[in-house]
Amino acid sequence: MASQGDVDPAESYFTIEVPTSVKALDMRVIKTEVCHVYKGGFAEQQGVEIDDEVWEVNGEFFGDIGKDPNYPEKDQTEEQVNAFKQRPLTIKFKRPKYKDTYYEVEFGDKKIGVKYLDAVVTTVLKTFKL
Questions:
Q1: Residue 35 belongs to a domain with what CATH number?
Q2: Which of 47, 52, 92, 121 has its CA 20 to 30 A from that of 26?
């Protein structure tokens, strides 16, 4: 994992402001990476995309919030989850130069998502029973 001093000039960074009127960010994060952005939600309206990385929350490096050096493999800390509940909130994101490719397949009103990497489907995300 990167540290706060490791700013990569090849990447782009952007910041969003979350006012007190916003109840939910409408995105899911695993470790520091955005893994889902809900269609029409606040995060999407602000330009957040899948694969963006949460870099800072209210000026604090997100990767270090609540981390215990004895358990570095832990996905997310309670402090990180709680950091997103603060209002107002400032979130700085890092957008990778190269992003994974995702596809959404529709079967009538049913959908699945797939992650495609190097000509191979690597992940299938089911949202319904086939």
A1: 2.30.42.10
A2: 121
| Same domain assignment for residues 80 and 130 | no
Distances (CA, A) of 94 to 24, 53, 97: 20, 5, 9
Q: What would the pLDDT profile of 4-57 be if each residue is shown by its tens digit?
A: 556 666 689 999 999 999 999 999 888 888 988 999 999 999 999 999 999 999
Q: Are residues 59 and 83 in the same domain?
A: yes
Q: Is the pLDDT of residue 129 over 60?
A: no
Dist CA 13 CA 63 (whole Å) = 16
Burial of 32 (0-12, 13-18, 19+ CB in 10 A): buried
DSSP β-ladder status, 89-95 and 33-37: unpaired
Domain of residue 70: give its range: 12-95
